[in-house]
Amino acid sequence: AAVDKGVDFANYFCTYAYLYHQKEMLSDRVRMDAYFNAVFRNKHHFQGKAVLDVGTGSGILAIWSAQAGARKVYAVEATKMAEHARALVKANNLEGIVEVIEGSIEDITLPEKVDVIISEWMGYFLLRESMFDSVICARDRWLKPGGLMYPSHARMWVAPIRSRVVDQKKDDYDRTMEDWYNFVDETKASYGVDMNIFTKPFKDEQRKYYLQTSLWNNLHPEQVIGDAGIIKDIDCSTATIDDIRSVRSSISSSITENNRFCAYAGWFDVHFRGNKQNPAREEIELTTAPSEEHGTHWGQQVFLIHPPLNVEKGDALIIDVSMDRSQENHRLMEVEFGCEIRHCSGKLRPPLKHKFYIE
Amino acid sequence: AAVDKGVDFANYFCTYAYLYHQKEMLSDRVRMDAYFNAVFRNKHHFQGKAVLDVGTGSGILAIWSAQAGARKVYAVEATKMAEHARALVKANNLEGIVEVIEGSIEDITLPEKVDVIISEWMGYFLLRESMFDSVICARDRWLKPGGLMYPSHARMWVAPIRSRVVDQKKDDYDRTMEDWYNFVDETKASYGVDMNIFTKPFKDEQRKYYLQTSLWNNLHPEQVIGDAGIIKDIDCSTATIDDIRSVRSSISSSITENNRFCAYAGWFDVHFRGNKQNPAREEIELTTAPSEEHGTHWGQQVFLIHPPLNVEKGDALIIDVSMDRSQENHRLMEVEFGCEIRHCSGKLRPPLKHKFYIE
Ligand SMILES: Nc1ncnc2c1ncn2[C@@H]1O[C@H](CSCC[C@H](N)C(=O)O)[C@@H](O)[C@H]1O
Ligand SMILES: Nc1ncnc2c1ncn2[C@@H]1O[C@H](CSCC[C@H](N)C(=O)O)[C@@H](O)[C@H]1O
Hints:
Chain A has helices spanning 5-11, 19-26, 29-40, 60-67, 81-91, 132-142, 165-191, 199-211, 241-245, and strands spanning 50-54, 72-77, 98-102, 114-119, 143-150, 153-161, 215-217, 229-235, 246-254, 259-274, 279-287, 300-311, 316-325, 333-342, 352-358. Chain A is of the alpha/beta class. In chain A, the strands form 3 sheets. In chain A, strands 6, 7, 8, 10, 11 and 12 form a 6-stranded antiparallel sheet that branches. Chain A has a 5-stranded parallel sheet with strand order 3-2-1-4-5, sandwiched between helices. In chain A, strand 13 and strand 14 (333-342) form a beta hairpin. The longest helix of chain A has 27 residues, at 165-191. The mean pLDDT of chain A is 97. Chain A binds chain B through residues 4, 6-7, 9-11, 18-20, 23, 26-27, 29, 32, 36, 58, 60, 63-64, 67, 84, 87-88, 90-92, 180, 183, 187, 190-198, 201-202, 205-206, 209, and chain B through 4, 6-7, 9-11, 18-20, 23, 26-27, 29, 32, 36, 58, 60, 63-64, 67, 84, 87-88, 90-92, 180, 183, 187, 190-198, 201-202, 205-206, 209. Bound molecules: S-adenosyl-L-homocysteine (SAH) (2 copies). The site of one S-adenosyl-L-homocysteine (SAH) has 21 residues of chain B, from helix 2, helix 4 and strand 2.
């Protein structure tokens, strides 16, 4: 289905037009340190070069690129934030180098091809927001052959976890349904209309929003109860939109402690490695894995399993993941997790299958 | 500016497609009792008649109209909620009378003109959502001459109030700005970029969202510290879109107790009176005024004044209100309040002027 630009703006871009939201990203030290180090420890990639910043937001990555020695930086931003970026560039005396262009990357044209594309395009669980599509489009149109992608690689991870949120969500859901039954009774008694026909669709609606919608969470590493596995490995220099439109993968994970298996958790990392002909002097990693001290604004996405399952150290899991874009909004996702659990005794348990929405 | 239907759907209609949201309205006893009594105590208006329900949602008003004896009810709903409404009609054995039509009232056609238009179109402070436009459109196209509007009249009220929220909002705002200054310092120190140029626009953004955006509140009647006045009186049978596109009014209000003047509050009421040729047997009122026991889901809209002002019993206020639709979204509003305060001693205080957004 074709994307209506006005609707996409209302649903997606509009939040990026607020400085408040840009500030949230600019205050994420893990994110900032990674990009900062990636640029300044690899100045040779920027010196004298033409750079394109896809979705410049406040302008930060474009400014760093210029400060690292770029000859010219094209900083493209779809929202009115472009005006703020332009002011920031000027206040930092870089208007001779950084050119802010307001427009979506798909629509604008540049006067030349570039040596480097830098972009911070990652959404929750990497692919939410589908902004990497725009980076691919920029790369295919504006990157010189052999040019560099910042970041150069990206990976998606999944692991089994424990989480008390599973109980809380179930309680919320139960309370909401109890309230619903009262509502149906009262509406019949007071107003003579039997709403029981809505019980099933209301329940489905609530299941979707309480139980089947993934949650943002900043997990403690100890909540991870089995090995994490990689479900997707992306080379930003070569990946096509078809490569990332959906994810199909199967990983095996061994349970590392007796515990409750409450949810799957998903996160990502990206790397700044340059490329074969032109490698990074220092490779930088930005990871959003569960961490006590180095949490990010992305946190992790948690997909709750109702009811949770008791598992034992040594249980062998095979986790199947299948992720697609939602039909109604190409920037949101639907994920199916299947899980086969072989008990450490060798016995196979009934397989799990759960569907989730990343909203 | 023309309204993009897709964008309007994304911004406005989409919430109404959830049973959860319909339930919130269906659980508002004040609202429900008013419409229920309006219909069932004036059955003579419905018996044997053709009725149009503009925005039927769950279908409730259409079903009541049928139960009160309507010959035919056209129940028009723009969202997928129409399917649920159809199921409810069937479950209540009214499919011979109530015809649910999915579509926006502006686009659909009916096979006949109707005797009664019923609709629950009221938004916060009455006019938010601008749904009355659709009712006017329906009336002008589908109501027989002399036909009835349910409700028949609507009024907007304003009063001076006290509220501790004014202090809390100011604290929040101050904290956010403090945090901002730290952020600017740290960004300069750690990342070599001076973001101070964003301070003014960030402050403006925050002022808008913390201080100048109206708040939903369920006020206690004792929080009203001066006489309430009517700023708009609408006859639903004759009002045109031009009549309601903006509100310009001036009311006088006398302070009834020594207190802090912290905010203007706005609310509305509607009446079901039938019309001159065909009056209601029993007039029903639905009011959203501050009330200890009869609060509604609409609450009141509160427009905070920073800093609040000490006022005394007998102080005479002249409050000017000017409300317009927001440029970016015709369903949202911008309001300006001016206030002239004559102290009980006769002395005139410096006039107030504040601009607010109803988001
Ligand atoms: N197709 C597109 N064209 C232009 N800008 C886009 C875009 N898709 C997303 N964006 C913009 O990309 C930004 C992503 S957020 C990252 C902002 C900034 N580069 C930083 O690292 O702090 C948002 O401001 C968003 O509006
Ligand atoms: N132009 C339009 N055409 C059709 N439906 C509309 C409309 N504007 C608003 N609506 C619908 O009107 C409803 C208003 S809420 C009221 C629902 C129901 N009549 C009740 O009283 O409980 C929403 O469901 C909304 O989707």
